[in-house]
Amino acid sequence: MIELDEQQQRARTWFESLRDAICAEFEAIEAEAGSDARFDYLAWDRVDPSGAPGGGGVRGVMKGKVFEKVGVNVSTVGGALEGEFAKTIHGAGEDPSFFATGISLVAHMANPHAPAVHMNTRFLTTTKRWFGGGADLNPPIPYEEDTEEFHAALKAACDAHDPEHYPRFRKWAEDYFYIPHRKVHRGVGGIFYDHLESDWEADFAFTQDVGRAFLDVFPRLVRRRMASAFTEADKAQQLEWRGRYAEFNLIYDRGTLFGLKTGGNVDAILMSLPPVAAWG
Question: Cβ atoms within 10 A of the Cβ of 278, count?
Fold first, then answer.
């Protein structure tokens, strides 16, 4: 076990409670669709390169009638970052010690009219302390109504804390969730933020509200679309967009790189990949 200070423990407790609430809601959606699908949880331990305890996490995966594959992971890890990678992490250039706790979620839906989604929020400690994360919607078949509702929920969460947050974090998401070699965005956007370190209590409260906003809006979108009729062409479009999602996560995603570079559980890190995808 790694020792946690008060802030680290509070953040960990929140991410785990958010995981429990989200998984319960997703299982309820499966039940509404006549499925008995449940999350399968697997705990894993991380050993720091020094040999000292490095924390660990729990990978949660469900495969059902509505959620073809959804992963909800929580982790709390610490130790020392290795080599040149340490210099790329905020506050770790001279001292490679780090701590990270957070939740990461990716849902790939069975019905191509139901949007895929990503959500991640986290708290990191090096010589600095900060929150980061966000959420973005990835519909194979976009609906303006869904896009507007998703953004409205995130905007409300942002506006409750700082009117500058939403325009700044929405633009950050547009820039970040972009596939340069395809010259397309990964989806219809959302918010993305990092290095939020102005006031710990305020930043923690904001990060909690992002999680609550996601829990409020995304299940609504799923229930709206999960029983929609679809064609083979619709399914083909979904598989093509899943391929692009996989390309982004394997080539550009910072979270994937951080997890692999810090000795995280490989299966948990790559749970974001879709169960089936297609390329050209």
Answer: 14
